[in-house]
Amino acid sequence: MPTSKKPNTMLSTVTQPIEWLRMLSSQLNPTFVIGVFLIYGLGQGFSGSFFKVVSDYYWKDVQKVQPSTVQLYVGFYFIPWVLKPVWGILTDAFPVRGYRRRPYFIIAGVLGTVSAALVALVGNLAAAAALLCFLGVSASLAIADVTIDACIARNSIEVRSLAPDLQSLCGFCSGFGALVGYLASGFFVHHLGPQGSLGLMALSPALTIVLGFVIYENRTSGLHGEKKQTALESVGMTIKSMHQTMMYPQVWKPSLFMFLTLALNVTTHEGHFYWYTDPKAGPAFPQEFVGVIYAIGAVASIIGVVIYHKALKDYPFRNLVFYGQLLYAISGVLDLIFILRWNLIIGIPDYFFVVIEETATRITGKIRWMPMLVLSTQLCPLGIEGTFFALLMCIDSIGALLSRWGGGVLLRLLNVTRTDFTNLWLAVLIRDMLRFAILALVFLVPKAGQYEGLLPSEVSEKNVSDNVDEETLELVPINANTKV
User: Per the UniProt record, which residue ranges are transmembrane (predicted)?
Assistant: First the structure.
């Protein structure tokens, strides 16, 4: 009997993810799942992680910029994400030649491809010009992300039982993509250098261009003047509906919590990165191992998604967020131990301890944030779900931007430079204290379960119109009527 159970257990481990994907494809749309893989896996996952490592080395070794300045530069990357409601309104209300989705995929792809190629091929590029190119890469990812997020929000509202599963799917795709990106980044930086490696950033936006040409979309009809007036009226109604929805306490309270959670979680990443590679004050990790560290973090993020998907998606929002934030704050203490080199005092080598620290931080970070993403989808009213979800993500991006800039100001005030890391431990201590302080704000998160609707019924009824032209995210035409 025991011997017969082992193969079954191993087989189920392999078949369960396949059956899960089949279930999502059957209840939603197989091409929707493919779209998530393309945008979240290749775009946000691979490109985002590869860009993070390679751009850090680019600023450090090519531009020779101080860590506090890089921290401020990184904050600018979030500006295109702050503008997500603008991209959402453009794709919803301003079709190009009758198409709402195709042109913006193509625009995003062209913008990202040109930006990545410029910074990779042009030597002696000024810091301001390089920053503009990096902004172009970030804008490419943000614009492409808007369309798929709208589809995810609608599916989460129409099939509430699958809302946690959809966020799990996004988490798995971005996690696996990040794993590949981080593993590849150190190798390519070592062999091609930071500037040459940035040329690979053109891969994802180039495929986004292809996606824009092959994606199936119904072309809208009507006179140009009528469409223009309808678009302008649609923008006005959308803005009014967004304002009215945001005024509900069950919407603005969790939105405020998500913003404060990100804004108060000041990041000292650039200080850590410079310290990682310093041969005197830090552990002097080689380029390949820095990529491995982040790859381990990507694996840990996937583990966090698995833990959430298997064990935590039935818990109420407030309880899960509270304990997730508590564990995340506790895991931050490991950074402090590492910076102070206490790990060597207790006999744990740097290479081993950084794995422990990165794993704990990524798992707890994913566990605390997954329910917040599910909550965001449940706050979106039907009819304006794409633009409203973009608004919520915009609020989060503003919080993340303030987190980067706050960390940059903190590093500068404490005089953490390319060679002086004396006060880096103090910056980490302040960051950890802020993480614990966020626990006092958890009362803003609703007590409701993750499958429950949070908005009054009149909100959705008010925003849904029989005249709304629903579009499906399809890579090839299909005849069957399917939900998106």
Answer: 32-51, 71-91, 103-122, 128-148, 169-192, 198-216, 256-277, 289-308, 320-342, 382-403, 424-445
Q: What is the pLDDT of residues 392-445, one digit of tens each?
A: 888 888 888 888 888 888 988 998 888 888 899 999 999 999 999 999 999 998
And the tokens for 405? Answer: 């800039």
Residue 32 near residue 148, CB atoms below 8 Å: no
Distance CA 167, CA 371 (A): 9
The answer for 383, left when phi > 0, alpha when psi is -120 to 50, beta otherwise, is left
- Listed in sequence order, the residues at least 6 apart from 362 whose beta carbon sits closer than 8 Å to its beta carbon are 297, 298, 300, 301, 304
CB 263 within 8 A of CB 399: yes
Cα Rg, the chain, nearest whole Å:
23
Distances (CA, A) of 206 to 105, 188, 259, 346, 429: 10, 19, 33, 49, 42
Which residues share a beta bridge with 99? Answer: 96
Distance in angstroms (rounded) separating the CA atoms of residues 139 and 414: 32
Bridge-partner residues for 216, per DSSP? 474
First to last CA, the chain: 45
Question: Taking the model in full, what pTM does it have?
Answer: 0.67
- Give the tens place of pLDDT for each residue, 110-136: 999 999 889 888 877 888 888 999 999
Q: Degrees (nearest 5) of the Cα angle 423, 48, 292?
A: 65
